[in-house]
Design goal:
It is built from eight helices and twelve strands. The protein is of the alpha/beta class and 224 residues long. It has a five-stranded parallel β-sheet, sandwiched between helices. Strands 6-7-8-9 form a four-stranded antiparallel β-sheet, with helices on one face. Strands 10-12-11 form a three-stranded antiparallel β-sheet. The longest helix has 13 residues. It starts with a strand and ends with a strand.
Length: 224
């Protein structure tokens, strides 16, 4: 693979680059965030390894900028910031994986191989639209009639599921398995509860309802 490593620590950068080259990869090593952003923009890479704490432009800002410009190259964050909140923030910024320092090269290599094998997203939609409702999948921003709608992560996932299958009925079982990754329990009303909360944010303030209940079947979203 062709790999871009953005790491300001010279010893760590050389260690990573040399190890990856020994495995047969082509590696470009860049020591700063600003130069790394330029290289990521003009180059064509299979994977990027980005240190989160970079001089000038930090890794978080770098990845957010790339995602905003529709660069979908897989990114592995490499950093000493290993707290749960730090990892969550990094993944929400657009990273595909997160490895904390100190690390073993074997694990780094395995993680790079894993994200490099994932299907590329060039053919995936960057945004979803139903009538005046828009969802940006990169920035995770939802708007309706130009107004921003703040959604919790589960609400976002539920709305994304409905919008990706616009016009098609989604049963409670399908929604439970897609959004909650569990098999449907007929005794739970978690889907109905979240649909109600979603409607309160997406439909009620705007007068026109997009989320429809299909009696005895499930839910779907339709353009008005």
């Amino acid at each position: 693979m062709k790999i871009l490593v953005i790491e300001d620590d010279a010893a760590t950068g050389a260690y990573i680059a040399d190890g990856l080259r020994e495995e047969g990869h082509s590696v470009d090593l860049i020591p700063s965030g600003a130069d790394g952003l330029v290289q990521a923009t003009i180059g064509s890479y299979d994977v990027m390894v980005v240190d989160r704490m970079l001089p000038g432009l930090d890794g978080m800002a770098l990845v957010k900028t790339l995602r905003a410009t529709r660069n979908v190259t897989p990114v592995l964050f490499l950093t000493a910031m290993g707290g749960v909140d730090d990892r969550i923030e990094g993944l929400h910024a657009g990273a595909d994986d997160y490895l904390t320092k100190p690390f073993s090269f074997g694990e780094l290599s395995a993680r790079i191989a894993a994200i490099g094998r994932r299907p590329r997203l060039q053919d995936e939609p960057v945004s979803l639209t139903v009538a005046d409702l828009e969802m940006n999948l990169l920035t995770r921003k939802v708007t309706r009639a130009g107004q921003t709608i703040d959604l919790l992560p589960r609400e976002f996932a539920l709305l994304e599921c409905l919008m990706r299958r616009k016009g098609r009925v989604q049963t409670r079982t399908m929604l439970m398995e897609t959004v909650w990754d569990i098999h449907y329990d007929p005794l739970t009303n978690v889907v109905d509860t979240h649909i109600s909360r979603l409607r309160a944010k997406v439909d009620k303030p705007f007068g026109t309802e997009l989320i429809e209940t299909v009696r005895g079947a499930g839910y779907r979203i339709n353009a008005a």
